[in-house]
Amino acid sequence: MNNHESRPEHDRYRIGIVEDHESVVIGMRAMLAEHPAVEVGASAATVADLLAQQAALDMAILDLRLADGSSPMTNVEELRAAGLETLVFTGAENPYLIRLAAKAGVLGVLRKSAPTNVVIDAIAAAAAGEPVVTTEWAAAIDGDPALSAVGLSARQCDVLALYASGEKADRVARLTGLTPSTVNDYLRRIRAKYHEAGRPAQTKVELYQRAVEDGWLPVPENTVR
């Protein structure tokens, strides 16, 4: 589906938009209508619907929050599997969603509130396969510079997310297929790794805080700022 290699240089890049607000799609089509290198080739409210159109596209633009409740990470992975690198274009303020998309390997994260010229330039750069470095994207990838990585395994991350979200160790064991003793051993190792990184995680509250910081649990929607 990705035609970067075969596309003649004088042709415009064709982008697909995954967005469930029609006004945003209309606005983007208007913004790019006279652009010499980029045009909107297709749009849909979900990734599945966009891919079902089998349109010849060079890249995708994705909103993080869609009405179907789909995961940003899954959406990006499905688009990339179809040969479409992805630029996130969103109004979502939740850093957890941005981090999910960043972990899936997007070209960048762009706010809908950005000036029109910034949006157009970012889309053109992304269509050409260039990363779009923004403050939001950098923050999602790097996080707080003071937060040292702890190198948890995939299994340890599963245990941390379940336990820190409120589950008891025996319940975590049932959900993961591990024994309670193994879960407790994992928790000891997780706490030790955070301790070595200089990030306290002795209490369940501290484990919850570390899980949110590292993107294993979402930031609460009712966080007081």
TrEMBL record:
Record keyword Amino-acid biosynthesis present: no
Modification type 4-aspartylphosphate: residues: D63
PANTHER family given in the database record = TWO-COMPONENT RESPONSE REGULATOR (PTHR43214)
Q: Which Pfam families match?
A: GerE, Response_reg
Matching entries from SMART domains are given as: HTH_LUXR (SM00421), REC (SM00448)
Keyword Lipid biosynthesis in the entry? The reply is no
Q: Which organism is it from?
A: Tomitella cavernea
Q: What is the protein named? A: Response regulator transcription factor
Keywords, A to Z, come to: DNA-binding, Phosphoprotein
* Location of the Response regulatory domain: 14-127
In terms of InterPro entries, this protein maps to: CheY-like_superfamily, Sig_transdc_resp-reg_C-effctor, Sig_transdc_resp-reg_receiver, Tscrpt_reg_LuxR_C, WalR-like, WH-like_DNA-bd_sf
Coiled-coil positions are none
Known Gene3D superfamilies for this protein?
A: 3.40.50.2300, Winged helix-like DNA-binding domain superfamily/Winged helix DNA-binding domain
